[in-house]
Amino acid sequence: MSGLETPRAAVHGTPARRRVAIGSSVGATIETYDFIGFGTAAALYFNEVFFPSSDPLSGTLLSFATLGIGFAVRPLGGIVGGYLGDRIGRKPVLVGSLLLMGVATVLIGLLPTYQMIGIWAAVLLVAVRVVQGLAFGAEWGGAILMTFEHAPWRKRGLYTGITQAGFPLGLLLANTAFLVSVPLGDQWAWRVPFLLSAVLIVVGIIIRLKVEESPEFEELKAEGDVSHNPLLEVLRTGWRDILRAFCLRITETAGYAISVTFVLSYLSSEDLADRSLTLFSLMLAAGIGIFATTAWGALTDRVGRRPVYLFGTAITVAWGVPLFLMLNTGAAFAIVLAFVISYAICQNCLAGVQGAWFSELFAARTRTTGASLAYQLSAVVSGFTPLIATALFAGVGWIGPALLFTGYGLLGLFAAVLTPETWGAAKRAEIAALERAAAAPDVVRPNSVTSA
Q: Transmembrane stretches, by residue range (predicted)?
């Protein structure tokens, strides 16, 4: 924020802070429903629907490769969305990315299968998946930054946690749709969830059109301080933070790719659980995750960003082998518990921190570009992680994916140690002093205090 911002406005946030947080969360819910729903369909259906059924393992590998392509193009979406967010505003990016995602997702539900047109079915699936990846890549930075910049100083972890909670809610809705559609048969069981996205998109667009632009961007524009080339500027001044955030993010997103996306396929291929049990387990974990993500974010407002992240990555390091040992029992309770621990603790703990911590690492004029780039670059790794995990499983058994999960945890743990704490005790004390000053009328915040 600029030095002209009053402490009163910064301490309490804008009057629209709750509406912005909820609006961003609704959009994140819809985009996640669309994007993650593809992952569920890829694990359960696409290996047979869009690829030759003569070799099940090859079909699964090709299905996960298509899933990975969407992740691979997300950095490009993040770059474009971040650049536009820092140049023309956060709101236009939010609306445009949601509309693009909606069109692509509905088209998936209308695609012909391999049995209908042969290899062209897979080609069309890849093309639409690329559009999905671009839209999802542009989404996160705009949604998080809008929430962060409208929120009060002392509750930015909570408010960005609300937006991040849109992701488990989208996951819950997507898998609910797939579970309910199971009786429709293999032809419609995967189509209906994608077609239902049309309803969600209309609701999301209406909500997002009513969201106010970021106050920090409006200040930058009024002062003529908008970056002319935010991408080059952040690469020049903030490349270290991009690298740190990239490593922090990999633990969360690649960990999810193993403990959820790959595990869905693993349970099915090894006959450890039927589709109804796996979808129910994931739905329960996602339901808990809605509240867990927000709670983890709120906790960072009290103790700082780094301690919570250190805890989450340490749990991830320790969880790899026990996760698969529990799954291999084939017991329903163990499988449900494995999903809950993997998602509500390992994944949600990290996701709840990222919104505030990543935003605070970058200056306002390049914040959307920097945070989006770091966040989406990790998608290149995580997007192909189910493919890597499947190959490891084929070569050395379940221990391969288990150790890969642990390895991702170690990477995040080291990154958390090396990343600066942006909301430590000294910063919280500084903001507390400004809160007291904000009680006095017409007090202008000193130029030396930044929003990060």
A: 61-85, 92-111, 117-137, 158-182, 188-207, 246-267, 279-299, 308-325, 331-353, 373-392, 398-418
Q: Is 444 helix (H, G, I), strand (E, B) or coil?
A: coil
Convert the pLDDT of each residue in 227-265 to its tens digit: 888 889 999 998 999 999 999 999 999 999 999 989 988
Please provide the DSSP assignment of 266-298 as one string: HHHHTTSS-HHHHHHHHHHHHHHHHHHHHHHHH
How deeply is 447 buried, as exposed, middle or buried, from its count of CB atoms within 10 A (0-12, 13-18, 19+)? exposed
Strands, E, within 177-286: which ranges?
none
Which helix (H) or strand (E) segment holds residue 350: the answer is: helix 348-360
Q: How far apart are CA 117 and CA 176, in angstroms?
A: 30
How far is it, in rounded angstroms, from Cα 16 to Cα 301? 20
C-alpha span between 423 and 428 (Å, rounded): 6
Residues 6+ apart with CB under 8 A from 124: 111, 112
For the chain, the structural domain boundaries read 7-208+227-438
| Cα separation values, 391 from 53, 58, 280, 388, Å | 18, 10, 27, 5
**Which CA distances in Å does 223 have to 1, 219, 226?**
11, 6, 8
DSSP 94-140: HHHHHHHHHHHHHHHHH---HHHHTTHHHHHHHHHHHHHHHHHHHHH
**Which residues, 6+ apart, have CB-to-CB distance to 396 below 8 Å?**
none
Q: How far apart are CA 200 and CA 101, in angstroms?
A: 11
- Name all contacts of 324-327 with Cβ < 8 Å and 24+ positions apart: 324/398, 324/399, 324/401, 324/402, 327/263, 327/266, 327/267, 327/272, 327/398
Closest among 143, 34, 37 to 96, alpha carbons compared:
143
List, for residues 397-423, the tens digit of each pLDDT value: 999 999 999 999 999 999 999 999 999
Residue whose pair of structure tokens reads 């903001």 in the numeric block = 431
Mean pLDDT by 10 residues, the chain (452 residues): 44 79 81 75 77 66 74 83 81 82 86 85 85 82 84 92 91 83 80 83 76 76 82 91 95 93 89 87 92 96 97 97 96 96 96 94 87 83 86 95 97 97 90 74 47 42
Task: Tell me the C-alpha distance between 147 and 336, whole Å.
Answer: 33
Task: Confirm or reject CATH 1.20.1250.20 for domain 7-208+227-438, answering yes or no.
Answer: yes
Question: Would you tell me how many other CB atoms lie within 10 Å of the CB of residue 199?
Answer: 11
DSSP 364: G
